Structure formats: C-alpha cells, structure tokens
Amino acid sequence: MPRLSLVVPMYNEQEMTRLFFEKTLPLVQQCTDDYEFIFVNDGSRDNTLANLKELAAQNPRVKVLSLSRNFGKEAAVTAGLEVSSGDAVIILDADLQDPPELIPQFWEKFEQGFENVYGVRADRGADSFLKRATAQTFYKIYNLLADTPLPYNAGDCRLMSRRAVNAVLSLPERERFMKGLFSWVGYKSAAVPFCRAPRAAGKTKWNYWRLWNFALNGLTASTTVPLKLWTYFGLLVSLGAFLFAAWTAYKKIMWGNPVSGYTSLMVVILFFSGVQLITLGVIGEYLSRIFIEVKRRPVYLADEKINF
Ligand code: UDP
Ligand code: MG
Asked: In the Cβ-directed half-sphere of 202, how many Cα atoms lie within 13 Å?
C-alpha cells in the first residue's frame, strides 16, 4: 500500500502527459518515496493513451486506467479513486492549472492530521468577468439551498485520507458531483490558497452549456428545495386568487358588472402558464435524474489497466 496516490484525469491531453509527470514527480518525491501515479485516460481521441503507456513502461509507479469511452471528468475521478490505494490521495488536473507546488503543501496538512485538504483559488483574475460572475452566483445559490455548503472558489484539486476516499466511494449515486460529495463527507478539513495558472498546453473542455448542466447537476444532487418551492408559491397565489374573487364578487353586488379586463386576463393567463411550465421543467430535471439513478448503470467502464 503506497503512502501517496496521485489521481489525474486526462481527456485529450497528449501534450501534457510527459510534461505533467516531469513537473510533479520531484514534488511528489519530496513528500514520500512511496507513491503511485494513477492516470485515468477518459476516452481520449488523441495520443494520450500511447504517451501514458510509454510513461508506464519506464516507471512501474505509473499506473494507467483507460476507460472504454469518454465518461466525463467526474466519472474519471471516481474511477481513479476506486483503483487508488494510498493512505492519502491527491487529485490534480492534467493541465498544470492546479500548481504542482500544492502537492507538498497538501502533504504537510495531511501529516498535521487533516483528512480533507482542498485548494482555494486566491484570485480569479485569469477568468473572464462572465465566468467569475456566474461562478459566484452558483456558489451563492448552492450554499443557500444545499445542506452542506461548498467553500467559495474551491478548486477540484484536493488531498483526501483513505478514510475520506472510501467514504466518497461508498456514496452510491451515478450522477457524481464530486465537489458536493467531497464536502458532504466532512472530516477535518483545511484550505490551501493558490493561484490558478493558465493552461500549460491543449484546450479547455468546458463551455457555458456544459457549465450550466454541471451547475444543474450539482444543485439537483444536493438539494430538493427547487422542487418544494412551488408548493408555497402556489399557496400564495391561491390565497391571492381567493381574495381577488371575493373582491370581484363584492364589486359585482355593489356596482354591477361592466365587462372589462382583457389585458389583465391575458397577463394572468400567460404568467401562470409560464410558471406552470417552469415547475414542470423543475420536476423534469429531478425526474430525469431519478431515471438515471434507478437504472443503476456503472459510472464508468474500464478498458485497460496497466501496472496494477
Ligand atoms: N477531463 C476529463 N474528462 C472530460 C473533460 C475533462 O478527464 O470529459 C479532465 C481534463 O483532461 C483535465 C481536467 O479534467 O485534466 C480539467 O479539464 P479542463 O482543463 O478542460 O477544465 P477547466 O480547467 O477548463 O475547468
Ligand atoms: Mg483546466
């Protein structure tokens, strides 16, 4: 059982394989000689797997888990955690955006007894205004609604003790919003501030549509408030409607009934049609996820394992 496992998801990162390994190796060795690298090839279509095999052939501490297709980062990280065996596991992005200097800092915290150590982005200067604003809004809403809050601007890079890793792996859901799972397990946590570097090579796999769906996944996985909200909204509206009906009846009795109000009728009809469609949509968001969960398909499929 190695002391330290490094889990790195890779999707089309052919430029980064060797570069990543060479940058991080000395820092890992600074912590312990008893380490393993676990590279998860998430169905890359470029030379990532070939490059990883080359690394693995040269170093038996480099292990490669290749998935049968692209399953997404959350699944790839889950796969890496499942095959890791270290007392402590560090998760890093392949593109060196999480600076490798975090490795000894995380390790130091681990030796002080922290079991859930995460990097927090000290500044988001590298991001566009829109990215910063949307991220901020997401954290606000999430922390307002979810049971276990997310630390603001926590990166995906972190160290976890074996106990914490096993706890994360014992959570059976298929839709794996890892940040939420990591915070849910708790244990003694510590934050390490860092500055996120620009990508060392290659391209980001994210765009706003993926981010939006990622945010929806996170929210629906962690809170049911959006489902329940409408009960109260509906109650409020019914109360309003009741009062309005009473007022209309009173008016009719007192002053008769001159027909008018086409505009207000249209407004009310359109408004409530919209609200009803939104609530149906919210139910749909949850229902589709329940559907995925009840199918109980595996989170990923492994194709090849090297050096395990
Ligand atoms: N990644 C992955 N599967 C995917 C998308 C991304 O394993 O489907 C990996 C990617 O190789 C990288 C990490 O997840 O190591 C972060 O991806 P990226 O740098 O594109 O995201 P960003 O840093 O822009 O948020
Ligand atoms: Mg990146």
From this structure: 22
